[in-house]
Amino acid sequence: xxxxxxxxxxxxxxxxxxxxxxxxxxxxxxxxxxxxxxxxxxxxxxxxxxxxxxxxxxxxxxxxxxxxxxxxxxxxxxxxxxxxxxxxxxxxxxxxxxxxxxxxxxxxxxxxxxxxxxxxxxxxxxxxxxxxxxxxxxxxxxxxxxxxxxxxxxxxxxxxxxxxxxxxxxxxxxxxxxxxxxxxxxxxxxxxxxxxxxxxxxxxxxxxxxxxxxxxxxxxxxxxxxxxxxxxxxxxxxxxxxxxxxxxxxxxxxxxxxxxxxxxxxxxxxxxxxxxxxxxxxxxxxxxxxxxxxxxxxxxxxxxxxxxxxxxxxxxxxxxxxxxxxxxxxxxxxxxxxxxxxxxxxxxxxxxxxxxxxxxxxxxxxxxxxxxxxxxxxxxxxxxxxxxxxxxxxxxxxxxxxxxxxxxxxxxxxxxxxxxxxxxxxxxxxxxxxxxxxxxxxxxxxxxxxxxxxxxxxxxxxxxxxxxxxxxxxxxxxxxxxxxxxxxxxxxxxxxxxxxxxxxxxxxxxxxxxxxxxxxxxxxxxxxxxxxxxxxxxxxxxxxxxxxxxxxxxxxxxxxxxxxxxxxxxxxxxxxxxxxxxxxxxxxxxxxxxxxxxxxxxxxxx
Length: 606
Fold this sequence. Notes:
The chain is α/β, with parallel strands linked by helices. The chain has 2 domains: 14-20 and 40-54 and 115-280, Ribokinase (UDP-N-acetylmuramoyl-L-alanine:D-glutamate ligase); 309-589, no CATH class. The protein contains 21 helices and 21 strands. Helix 1 crosses helix 7 (238-251).
């Protein structure tokens, strides 16, 4: 499959095909109101509210009705000019809980929308979204035409009646795009049930679940995004609002799961007012929600950032030496692509609590966690460099990987070995399915106006990297490719530098005081080194992500330098022994909360 990073220098971030309607809404409680509507309109307005430059290809009324004037001012509205009485009109009855009935529908001049009328200067639009139209056949016609544009990522939505009447065409539409949006009822109609819904590796499916949130399906991997609190008044367009906000986030380089978190929050706000009023307000779209149980300390961030800015030894690491390939080794890219994704889970539990870090002896060297894995894979590079190819990884036998990782005692010391096998195979499977090589990915990213962002975006489709919404391993790989002497990747000036958050950095953030746990029960479990559930871990990790991001920005140091400094703190402030505060460079500004610990949870993210 063709590698296709999003264009950066573009006039539009999102083009929505499908437009506005004039609706009559029967709300719960007996209230009947008139409102602007339309799947295309809600999608376009939500994308604009979320910060995207948006175009909408739809019948454009002349004169413009007053109710649509605000929307026309927020989008580049193009399309055939029609009298206002030829706009689509819908009558919708709401029953509460997100349930609704389409009472009457008139599609108006939608039939005048044809691909040959699309302006040619939209070819560098990042994402083209084909909203639910009257027929899936017309949507498919647009998808096939837009495919010839080459660079734009294609997206589409559907609705239940279309699936019921044109199931095969909706399925063909689904297969023809990279992004697809459905609600729970629609996914049941098309796939039989949610559990059966899967995508190609280069494709993402978003399934909205009402107040329960949404699912993000990337190949065989599914992320559940929780819903945001909402007071439902008018749920018209909630799914389209979610869609538009996701598209804006993706066009900006966001991870699918992170964009879905923010989109769910905007949709929850939108349904608290009538029609698209929230999307037309001057209030900015909400970001990813913050768990109030754990939050960053802005004063401490400022103090630590100032200290870090003064330290001459805060420098990026070159990822050279005995644990890494020699400079210029022909298999270097394959080695790093296949090895970085294995950087997770180097600790053991006992009776539901953290027990000890993974430490073992290999070739006479007693090494801990990450260093042990680097050494074992570096040794394998000398023995069999083809081991790191995607073809070998896709079909990797467990006993072969176990042999690579074997210690001097004849044991495989990895605490979560099955997950390492699964990750290797997922990586190899996706790279094989996409027909990508590590060299292809790096070359394609390097041709982009923003190489680092392009690399992270491409890795969104690759097993072992795509699963983590905070992209710890993907960004680590980016730093390695940038900081190695070969300079495989050269980011553009001013590119975003996402933090690389693993458990060592979370432990540092907690002990230094960059983040604070404000919930007594969560604090007790962290101090007790108890295993946490995903929601508890996320509260801490997301706060740490934001704190490290601010330290990097305020210190003026690169993320590679900041990350290597905090990662090095694992030796000064270790898991099992008393911290060596006297020799710590940030001792003078540390809050010395030595009782705190990193989240204890088994994950392949870090």
